[in-house]
């Protein structure tokens, strides 16, 4: 175990020199200088954050700090918040890993990660040097007490600079198999105890690998933590445009009267990715698309679209409504799976004119892998609002483009008095990219004849003139402030697992179990298996995005 540097100090969070909060990015400022700063010294990439509350002094402890998520997303998000002066009067980070490193080596590692990540805001002159002072590192075996003891000592050291408090946010950015041992370890050493400051734990996804293991994990976590201390993170909820779905639904009067079985024909939720595995075979071979995207991100989008209006915009009211609608989803027992779900695995194909390998040819993937990289599912909700309105969800890797969208497709007008067929109106929430909302409807096209054409009214998020913040920035700040509104609660996660567990069982990839899928069944660069068209058809079609 490394020796601690005796003179270690705890950094005090102050905005970086030259940071101008809330300034609008000019076209000129968007050009980065050599160290990443905007040409006029402004931060061109961050939107103004509307927080009236600042977090109390706190230490953020990141387990798995040497991992991909931490390097590409978490460190840049924290850096951006700090540089904007949003982390309160005192803040420091303790990275925890299994690799032996000194504090200085870790500081170098983190600075390099910030310089290399595409997610890093424009770096103000002098910022990195000051940010380094906030960083410390501990290492050890996550199954043994010693590393938690060292973490405890870090909190002790921060106490004076943190006004006598020992607030701590523990972020578990590790493989899921380590969530329970780390939670237990923190508990054993008394680090969940809130007598000297608040203690919260952020748990990454996937939360469990099926319903039973999710329940076991919840029980194990609750042996140490009260539910109010637990923040299960789903980064889709941190996306501005996902929050905008709630803003539009519940901040306007014109949508609610239409948001039901009387007017809505069906809803399509798409999360398409053009990327393949990106070197994550070890994880993905275990997870597959249902655990990686459907059980969490898509279920959250679904719940926000379908839930009843909450009585208030607060954690309990919103999570109560999400849970209620998840509970109302018609169960998918094993014998219904074939009728309501389609799976796929991509084969070789072409993306942007370039040949790309199939899933089974990706490094680290077994040549006979039966892991699904595509899923489409039809959900039905047994409640008054949505009776008879199907929700179609689809997500997949190596589809033609990166696009996430929620489309509410309305019923046709009851009577066609104009020549030609009637089209369905569509209200589409573009979650990413080209963030915005569009309404498609029919209009008379100019001329003597009464000919109708489909037109689109489009709101683009860039009309606000600010870049969207990273979802991790939003969620990390929420967790530091203690706002759990955008974090799924235990019962939500449980219900989401209940919905997908029949699908997982039916598609179990263990040798000798289940039917052998005819994989690969879609070429990279196409919109997925043909069966997905049959799932939504015959009178409906997936949107061409
Ligand atoms: N990467 C991403 O884009 C996303 C990741 N997530 C979730 O975030 C979490 C972390 O993912 P990611 O960063 O990709 O994972 P990685 O595998 O890249 O890294 C995880 C971290 O855990 C450490 N680790 C792994 N095994 C052990 C072990 N046995 N004992 C101690 N430490 C260990 C790694 O250490 P070492 O560096 O030494 O290997 C590393 O620091 C996962 O739960 C993942 O599902 C969620 C959304 C997106
Ligand atoms: O959690 C995950 O999400 C990403 C997609 O996230 P996005 O914000 O880029 O849409 C996905 O690529 C990854 O497999 C999954 O683990």
UniProtKB/TrEMBL annotation:
Keywords: Carbohydrate metabolism, Glucose metabolism, NADP, Oxidoreductase
Keyword Mitochondrion appears in the UniProt entry: no
Residue intervals of the Glucose-6-phosphate dehydrogenase C-terminal domain: 246-542
Compositionally biased spans, kind Basic residues: 21-31
Record pathway: Carbohydrate degradation; pentose phosphate pathway; D-ribulose 5-phosphate from D-glucose 6-phosphate (oxidative stage): step 1/3
HAMAP family: G6PD
Name listed for the protein in its UniProt record: Glucose-6-phosphate 1-dehydrogenase
Originating species: Deinococcus radiopugnans ATCC 19172
């Amino acid at each position: 175990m490394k020796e601690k540097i005796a003179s270690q100090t705890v950094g005090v969070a102050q905005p970086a020199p030259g940071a101008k909060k809330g300034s609008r990015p000019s076209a000129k400022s968007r050009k980065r200088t050599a160290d990443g700063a905007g040409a006029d010294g402004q931060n061109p990439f961050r939107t103004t954050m509307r927080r009236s509350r600042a977090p109390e002094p706190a230490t953020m402890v990141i387990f798995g700090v040497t991992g991909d998520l931490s390097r590409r997303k978490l460190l840049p998000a924290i850096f951006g918040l700090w540089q904007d002066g949003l982390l309160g009067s005192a803040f420091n980070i303790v990275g925890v890993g299994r690799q032996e490193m000194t504090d200085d080596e870790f500081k170098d590692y983190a600075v390099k990660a910030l310089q290399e990540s595409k997610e890093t805001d424009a770096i103000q002159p002098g910022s990195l040097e000051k940010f380094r002072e906030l960083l410390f590192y501990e290492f050890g075996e996550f199954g043994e007490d010693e590393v938690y003891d060292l973490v405890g000592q870090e909190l002790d050291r921060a106490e004076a600079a943190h006004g006598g408090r020992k607030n701590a946010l523990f972020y578990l950015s590790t493989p899921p198999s380590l969530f329970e041992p780390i939670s237990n370890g923190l508990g054993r050493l008394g680090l969940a105890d809130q007598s000297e400051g608040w203690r919260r734990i952020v748990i990454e996804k996937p939360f469990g690998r099926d319903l039973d293991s999710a329940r076991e994990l919840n029980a194990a976590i609750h042996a140490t933590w009260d539910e109010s201390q637990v923040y299960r993170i789903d980064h889709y909820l941190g996306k501005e445009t996902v929050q905008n779905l709630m803003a539009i639904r519940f901040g306007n009067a014109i949508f609610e009267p239409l948001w039901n079985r009387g007017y809505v024909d069906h809803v399509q939720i798409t999360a398409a990715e053009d990327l393949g595995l990106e070197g994550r075979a070890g994880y993905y071979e275990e997870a597959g698309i249902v655990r990686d995207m459907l059980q969490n991100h898509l279920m959250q989008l679904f719940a926000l679209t379908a839930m009843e209006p909450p009585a208030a915009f607060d954690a309990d009211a919103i999570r109560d409504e999400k849970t209620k609608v998840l509970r109302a989803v018609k169960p998918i027992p094993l014998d219904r799976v074939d009728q309501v779900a389609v799976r796929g695995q991509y084969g070789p194909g072409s993306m942007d004119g370039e040949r790309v390998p199939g899933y089974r040819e990706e490094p680290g993937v077994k040549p006979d892998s039966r892991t699904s990289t595509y899923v489409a599912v039809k959900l039905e909700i047994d409640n008054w609002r949505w009776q008879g309105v199907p929700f179609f969800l689809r997500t997949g890797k190596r589809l033609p483009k990166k696009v996430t969208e929620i489309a509410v497709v309305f019923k046709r007008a009851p009577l066609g008095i104009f020549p030609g067929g009637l089209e369905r109106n569509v209200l589409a929430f573009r979650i990413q990219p080209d963030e915005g909302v569009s309404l498609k409807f029919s209009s008379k096209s100019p001329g003597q004849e009464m000919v109708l054409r489909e037109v689109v009214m489009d709101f683009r998020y860039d009309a606000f003139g600010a870049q969207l913040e990273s979802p991790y920035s939003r969620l990390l700040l929420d967790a530091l402030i203690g706002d759990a509104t955008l974090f799924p609660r235990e019962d939500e996660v449980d219900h989401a697992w209940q919905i997908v567990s029949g699908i997982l069982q039916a598609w179990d990839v263990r040798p000798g179990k289940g039917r052998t899928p005819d994989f690969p069944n879609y070429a990279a660069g196409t919109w997925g298996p043909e069966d997905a068209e049959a799932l939504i058809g015959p009178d409906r079609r997936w949107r061409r995005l």
